[in-house]
C-alpha cells in the first residue's frame, strides 16, 4: 500500500511538473509573440510620437513679398508640430540678409538672389547656406481705383517717373494726354528686394528718385493705403498684395516692348509679363538645417508650397522644379 501510494504521488508530481513546463513554454511563446506585437505596436506608435516631439524656434526674416508664402507654410506646419515656433519678420530682403549673415536667423526670405557683398559677408562669418526657389511673382504697378486715365504704361514711362534725378512732376509730363496733376509716388524702401528688382528691371540700376514726391515704406500694406488713397498716386509691389487689395487698386499693364501685358497667374508663369516676372527664394543656414525641426520645416515648405502659393496670390513652380529644390535639402 505504501508503495502504491508512493508511486501515485510520484506520478502526480510528474504530471504537475509536465503541466507546469508546458504552461511555461506556452507562456514563453505567448510572451515572445506579445513582446513582438508590443514592439511592433510601439514602433507604429513611436512614429507620430517622435514627430510630435519636434520643438524649438525657427527664426525667419526678410522679404515682405515672400512673407505671405513663409507665413502660410509656417501656419500649416504648426498644425502638425505645435511645439515648433516659426516667427516670421519683414525687415526686407536686405535686412533679412544682414541678420542671416550675422547668424541671427535660420532662414532668410528673399525676393531677389543674394548679392555678391552679402554672400561675402556670409562667407566671412563662416555661414554656408542653401538657396531654394519657392514660387514666381509678378511685380505689379498699381494706381487707385479712382484713376480713370491710365490704361497702360511703358517701361520708358515708368523709368521717366521713378528714376533718380527725374524732373517729372505731373502726369502730363509723362504723356501729353494725361492730366496736369502732380504725381504721388510710393515705393518699397531700399532694404526691399522689390526695390532692388524694380531698380534693375525698370531703371537699369540707375536708382530710384528720393524727393518730396515719393514716399518709402518696408510695409506693403502702407503702400497699398497710400496708393489707394490718392487718385493720382502710383506704386509697385508683389502681385499677392494687388490681388488682396484689388477692390481698391487698379493694376497697370506694362509694355516691355511686346505690347501691354497685365500680370496674371498665366503671364507671370510663362514669362510674358516682362520684365517684371521674377522668382522668389528662401535661404537656409546649413548649420541650422542640421536641427531636426529646421530640416522638417524646410522639407515641408518645399513639398507643400506649390498649392499654398496659389492661395496667397503667387504662382507655383512646375512640379519637377520643386523636386529639384527638394533634392537640395537632402
Automatic annotation (TrEMBL):
It is found in: Cell membrane. Its main location: membrane. Residues 1-22 form the signal peptide. PROSITE patterns: PROKAR_LIPOPROTEIN (PS51257). The keyword Protein transport does not apply. InterPro entries: PBP_domain, Phos-bd, Phosphate_ABC_transporter. SUPFAM superfamilies: Periplasmic binding protein-like II (SSF53850). The keyword Signal applies. GO terms for biological process: phosphate ion transport. It comes from the Bacteria. GO terms for molecular function: phosphate ion binding. One of its GO terms (cellular component) is plasma membrane. Keywords: Cell membrane, Lipoprotein, Membrane, Palmitate, Phosphate transport, Signal, Transport. CDD domains: PBP2_phosphate_like_2. Belongs to the PstS family. The complex is composed of two ATP-binding proteins (PstB), two transmembrane proteins (PstC and PstA) and a solute-binding protein (PstS). This is Phosphate-binding protein. It comes from Paenibacillus prosopidis.
Amino acid at each position: 500500500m505504501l508503495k502504491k501510494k508512493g508511486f501515485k504521488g510520484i506520478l502526480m508530481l510528474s504530471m504537475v511538473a509536465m503541466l507546469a513546463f508546458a504552461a511555461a513554454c506556452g507562456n514563453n511563446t505567448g510572451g515572445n509573440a506579445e513582446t513582438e506585437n508590443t514592439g511592433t505596436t510601439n514602433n507604429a506608435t513611436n512614429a507620430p510620437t517622435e514627430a510630435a516631439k519636434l520643438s524649438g524656434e525657427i527664426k525667419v526674416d526678410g522679404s515682405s513679398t515672400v512673407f505671405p508664402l513663409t507665413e502660410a507654410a509656417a501656419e500649416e506646419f504648426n498644425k502638425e508640430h505645435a511645439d515648433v515656433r516659426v516667427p516670421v519678420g519683414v525687415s526686407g530682403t536686405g535686412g533679412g540678409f544682414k541678420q542671416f549673415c550675422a547668424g541671427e536667423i535660420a532662414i532668410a526670405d528673399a525676393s531677389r538672389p543674394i548679392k555678391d557683398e552679402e554672400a561675402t559677408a556670409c562667407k566671412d562669418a563662416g555661414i554656408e547656406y542653401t538657396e531654394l526657389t519657392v514660387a514666381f511673382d509678378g511685380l505689379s504697378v498699381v494706381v487707385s481705383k479712382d484713376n480713370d486715365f491710365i490704361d497702360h504704361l511703358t517701361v520708358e514711362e515708368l523709368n521717366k517717373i521713378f528714376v533718380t534725378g527725374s524732373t517729372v512732376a505731373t502726369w502730363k509730363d509723362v504723356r501729353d494726354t494725361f492730366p496736369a496733376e502732380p504725381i504721388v509716388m510710393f515705393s518699397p524702401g531700399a532694404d526691399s528686394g522689390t526695390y532692388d528688382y524694380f531698380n534693375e528691371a525698370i531703371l537699369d540700376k540707375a536708382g530710384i528718385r528720393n524727393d518730396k514726391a515719393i514716399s518709402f515704406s518696408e510695409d506693403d500694406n502702407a503702400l497699398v493705403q497710400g496708393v489707394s488713397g490718392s487718385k493720382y498716386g502710383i506704386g509697385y509691389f508683389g502681385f499677392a498684395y494687388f490681388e488682396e487689395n484689388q477692390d481698391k487698386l487698379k493694376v497697370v499693364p506694362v509694355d516691355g516692348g511686346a505690347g501691354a501685358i497685365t500680370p496674371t497667374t498665366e503671364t507671370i508663369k510663362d514669362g510674358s509679363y516682362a520684365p517684371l516676372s521674377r522668382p522668389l527664394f528662401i535661404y537656409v543656414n546649413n548649420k541650422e538645417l542640421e536641427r531636426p525641426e529646421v530640416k522638417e520645416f524646410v522639407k515641408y515648405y518645399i513639398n507643400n508650397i506649390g498649392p499654398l502659393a496659389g492661395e496667397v496670390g503667387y504662382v507655383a513652380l512646375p512640379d519637377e522644379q520643386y523636386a529639384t529644390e527638394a533634392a537640395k535639402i537632402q
